[in-house]
């Protein structure tokens, strides 16, 4: 088999993973075409410019630019500097463990912040309501039930915040270790 056929066979084999990455990137809130860009970049050892990506994937430059921005927003693609090049160069995150930690911690922190703020606002409004002297007993029971739910959900969000911290500090890996890299 000549070199050209070997390179084609390599690309065909890599495309199995590129397609699976494209199919599952919806977990990260991006479209399959953006996932295909990430999968393609995953197999590139060196950085690539927008024009190189555009040519490799057959997408328009505006679409490619949008896809790169989407990947940068979820921290799986970084702009890098390459000596002698005036074009922006990009490299993808190769470490899936880091990708998972960065993305999900960011999303979980957002969830905690938004929901704890809502719980605090709701609790304040319920406290104002329950302090009314002529409060109907049925309404009081519903408020008490709501307080109970808020208390339980608040426990969850504090637990989720602790989980994020355990990922960020690496403590989680004492319980669920990252497998050692094979020395090949």
Automatic annotation (TrEMBL):
Key word Ion transport present: no
InterPro entries per UniProt: HTH-GbsR_regulator (IPR052362), MJ1563 (IPR026282), WH-like_DNA-bd_sf (IPR036388), WH_DNA-bd_sf (IPR036390)
SUPFAM superfamilies: Winged helix' DNA-binding domain (SSF46785)
Keywords, in A-Z order: DNA-binding, Transcription, Transcription regulation
Protein family according to the UniProt entry: Belongs to the GbsR family.
Entry keyword annotation includes S-adenosyl-L-methionine: no
The protein's name: HTH-type transcriptional regulator
Residues of the signal peptide: none
């Amino acid at each position: 088999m000549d070199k050209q056929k070997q390179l084609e066979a390599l690309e065909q084999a890599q495309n199995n993973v590129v397609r699976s990455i494209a199919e599952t990137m919806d977990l990260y809130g991006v479209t399959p075409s953006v996932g295909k860009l990430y999968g393609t970049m995953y197999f590139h050892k060196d950085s690539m410019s927008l024009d190189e990506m555009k040519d490799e994937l057959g997408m328009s430059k505006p679409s490619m630019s949008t896809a790169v921005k989407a990947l940068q927003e979820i921290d799986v693609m970084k702009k890098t500097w390459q000596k002698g090049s005036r074009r922006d160069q990009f490299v993808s995150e190769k470490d899936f463990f880091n990708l998972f930690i960065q993305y999900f911690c960011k999303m979980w922190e957002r969830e905690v912040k938004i929901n704890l703020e809502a719980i605090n606002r709701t609790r304040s409004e319920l406290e104002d309501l329950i302090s009314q002297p002529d409060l109907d007993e049925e309404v009081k029971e519903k408020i008490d039930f709501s307080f109970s739910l808020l208390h339980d959900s608040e426990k969850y969000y504090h637990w989720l915040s602790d989980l994020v911290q355990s990922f960020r500090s690496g403590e989680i890996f004492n319980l669920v270790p990252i497998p050692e890299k094979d020395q090949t």
